[in-house]
Amino acid sequence: MSLIQAHGLTFAYPSVRVLKDVAITVEANESHVVIGPNGAGKTTLFKVLSGEIFPQAGSIRYDGEDVTRLDAWQRVHRGIGRTFQVARLFGEQTVLNNVVLALECRERINGSSAGRWWRLTPARALQEEAMERLASYGLDRRAGDAAATLSHGDKKRLELLLTLALHPKLIMLDEPTAGMAPEDRRAVVALINRLREEEGLTLLLTEHDMEVVFGLATRLTVLNYGEIIASGDPEEVRRDARVQEIYFGKGGGHA
Ligand SMILES: Nc1ncnc2c1ncn2[C@@H]1O[C@H](COP(=O)(O)OP(=O)(O)OP(=O)(O)O)[C@@H](O)[C@H]1O
Ligand SMILES: [Mg+2]
């Protein structure tokens, strides 16, 4: 059974129709990358799937359950995590506190779902876990600094770390390597491949950098003006005539 099955998704802002009858499925343990030109509707699709906005038509099933009308926090409880095109952090808080807050959040989610909300892990244990997680991302040396002072790449890394701290089954990453230097991009590709292969996570991503796309995609979907024009094996999609014309055509495409 697919982890996500969405059909007929339609979303319009007052002045623009953004998603037009979009259908997308995400299989467990795939890295499904959605590409498309600027303004194609990729971020809007992620907002609809994560519950930040509701579609005007269409339905979304997650893990067999209709989640179309569930709020974002209810989807987080069910294991859907998301990062944003522009990282969302508690900028004034220290890097360490950002992670501790995410871990506390996870404790509440786990605790309440098991009916043991009173047995929260002591603050000290959460601090230690937070430091370990920061160390595994090479961010421990910045633990005491305000999150707002991190470099762009480190902010994106911290945001991913916060999302993972909630133990999601599915993570949606909106342009995880945007604005990064090539070596940082390669590190993100390696990390995402590790999350899928070793930790069994399912990933839905958007990405403009073609080296990143083909370095991690197990499935590729192309969105163009709010419509899906191709979806399938990455190499087959790359060879698709319409995709070639729109996306990889003369002018160098989008990379
Ligand atoms: N809050 C909003 N109000 C009105 N129009 C919006 C809003 N957000 C996005 N749009 C419009 O919706 C369309 C799709 O935007 P979206 O951000 O989903 O595209 P995208 O594929 O993520 O683009 P990019 O690659 O630049 O991130 C664009 O025409 C955009 O201008
Ligand atoms: Mg976007």
TrEMBL record:
Domain ABC transporter positions: 4-250
Any one GO cellular component localisation term in the record: plasma membrane
Classification via Pfam families: ABC_tran, BCA_ABC_TP_C
Gene Ontology molecular-function annotations: ATP binding; ATP hydrolysis activity
Keywords: ATP-binding, Nucleotide-binding, Transport
Domain of life: Bacteria
SMART domains: AAA
UniProt-listed InterPro entries: AAA+_ATPase, ABC_AA/LPS_Transport, ABC_transporter-like_ATP-bd, ABC_transporter-like_CS, BCA_ABC_TP_C, P-loop_NTPase
Protein name, per record: Amino acid/amide ABC transporter ATP-binding protein 1 (HAAT family)
Species annotation: Humitalea rosea
